[in-house]
Amino acid sequence: xxxxxxxxxxxxxxxxxxxxxxxxxxxxxxxxxxxxxxxxxxxxxxxxxxxxxxxxxxxxxxxxxxxxxxxxxxxxxxxxxxxxxxxxxxxxxxxxxxxxxxxxxxxxxxxxxxxxxxxxxxxxxxxxxxxxxxxxxxxxxxxxxxxxxxxxxxxxxxxxxxxxxxxxxxxxxxxxxx
Length: 178
Ligand SMILES: [Zn+2]
Ligand SMILES: [Zn+2]
What we know:
Blueprint: E1 7-9, E2 18-24, E3 36-49, E4 52-66, E5 73-88, H1 97-102, E6 107-111, E7 115-117, H2 118-128, H3 166-176
The chain binds zinc ion (ZN) (2 copies).
């Protein structure tokens, strides 16, 4: 994959728009964030909208994430639609609230008004698809905080420190009311 070919000059986008498809075998686009277990495949269509560029399309890949609870790696398929409006950064200061509202259904990314970095747009969309809480499984039991045993595999003999339960207070109240 040649990232330079994904930097498209605004003036080179024809009136009918420009379609691009590319494959990133090794996941170079997001190498600094996550490894991939399947190539990144993307199809995008660029359309000039006045001084803006509308980017639509789709991206597919499979990331390798590590579970927040048990720390094990697990495959995470990504299949995202791209629906982004690129606005020249120069319009930022004079953008009015009403304009913002109209564009609310689109993700807005700023660009220099000259070069559309399709690789960056696709990268952004993949990263947006990663959830805040990364779990190998919703029911993952995680690691024992005392011995580090993976509780999905077996239970350990550790007794978690007993905290004052709300019932302890309740008991006291019941006793004292007699
Ligand atoms: Zn897990
Ligand atoms: Zn334990």
